[in-house]
């Protein structure tokens, strides 16, 4: 059973995850900037006012957030970290990703060649972790950071992704646009430097869910 506080906490945590205020989150979703204001969460009569399902749907769409992630946020996940019980997550190094020894041609885990690490539970059974062996656009990704990657998640504009090219080169970026012919990525450092990857160069593209630093 969900409480009034949990739902509003979920909205606040979603905003924080995207480095936005509650009003900034509302604006991003095309809503009135005051939609999620603290003053609107309680009526003048002192009764709890709930956000509409339409407004929640719009912010999830605008931020590319699946409903199950929003539910996790409502139950206490901190921005940048998955929620839930601890479990074993398959983990590999960036060098193995480049070599293609642990993933298939579509970026999904091979049965062998993995280590295991303790990690809070996520619902994606195909998700895996990549431990960085070098800095990638520091300070955003540094040596020793663990990236949780979901090869099966839908990818939208604004998502942080990892791409492996057919020549073994690995790119990290933020999706600007994606078509059947190419994907355009911004540098993760947000310096607006774009890289165009033609489809015939791309082996696979996967969404980065979280970074544990």
Structure description:
This protein has 213 residues and is α+β, with helices and mostly antiparallel strands. It is built from five helices and nine strands, in the order ααααβαββββββββ. It has two domains: 71 residues, lambda repressor-like DNA-binding domains (434 Repressor (Amino-terminal Domain)), CATH 1.10.260.40; 127 residues, Umud Fragment, subunit A (Ribbon). Strand 7 and strand 8 form a beta hairpin.
Topology:
Elements lengths: L3 H14 L4 H7 L24 H11 L3 H8 L11 E8 H6 L15 E6 L7 E4 L14 E5 L9 E6 L4 E9 L3 E5 L7 E5 L3 E11 L1
Parallel strand pairs: 1-3
Antiparallel strand pairs: 1-2, 3-4, 4-9, 5-6, 5-9, 6-7, 7-8
CATH architecture of the largest domain: Ribbon
| Low-pLDDT segments | 78-87
Strand content range? 25-35%
DSSP helix fraction: 10-25%
- What would CATH call the class of the largest domain? Mainly Beta
**How far apart, in Å, are the first and last alpha carbons?**
33 Å
Spatially, the strands of the biggest sheet line up as: 2-1-3-4-9-5-6-7-8
Helix-strand string: HHHHEHEEEEEEEE
Judged by helices, strands and strand pairing, the structural class is: alpha+beta
Largest sheet report: 9 strands, mixed
CATH topology of the largest domain: Umud Fragment, subunit A
| Total beta-strand segments | 9
What is the oligomeric state here?
A: single chain
Mean pLDDT: 84
Total tally of structural domains: 2
Number of helices: 5
Q: What is the overall silhouette?
A: elongated
CATH level-four homologous superfamily name of the largest domain: Umud Fragment, subunit A
Query: C-alpha Rg, in Å?
Result: 19 Å
């Amino acid at each position: 059973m969900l409480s009034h506080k949990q739902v509003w906490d979920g909205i606040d945590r979603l905003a924080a995850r995207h480095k936005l205020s509650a009003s900034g989150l509302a604006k991003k979703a095309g809503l009135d900037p005051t939609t999620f204001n603290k003053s609107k969460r309680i009526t003048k009569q002192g009764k709890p006012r709930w956000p509409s399902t339409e407004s929640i749907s719009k912010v999830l769409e605008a931020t590319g957030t699946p409903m199950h992630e929003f539910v996790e946020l409502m139950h206490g996940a901190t921005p940048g970290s998955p929620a839930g019980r601890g479990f074993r997550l398959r983990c590999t190094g960036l060098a193995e990703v480049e070599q293609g020894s642990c993933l298939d041609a579509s970026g999904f885990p091979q049965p062998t060649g993995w280590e295991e690490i303790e990690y809070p539970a996520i619902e994606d059974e195909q998700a895996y972790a990549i431990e960085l062996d070098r800095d990638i656009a520091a300070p955003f990704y540094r040596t020793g950071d663990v990236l949780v990657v979901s090869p099966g998640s839908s990818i939208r504009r604004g998502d942080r992704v990892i791409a492996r090219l057919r020549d073994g080169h690995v790119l990290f970026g933020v999706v600007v646009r994606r078509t059947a012919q190419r994907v355009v990525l911004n540098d993760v450092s947000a310096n607006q430097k774009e890289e165009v990857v033609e489809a015939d160069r791309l082996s696979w593209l996967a969404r980065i869910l979280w970074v544990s630093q």
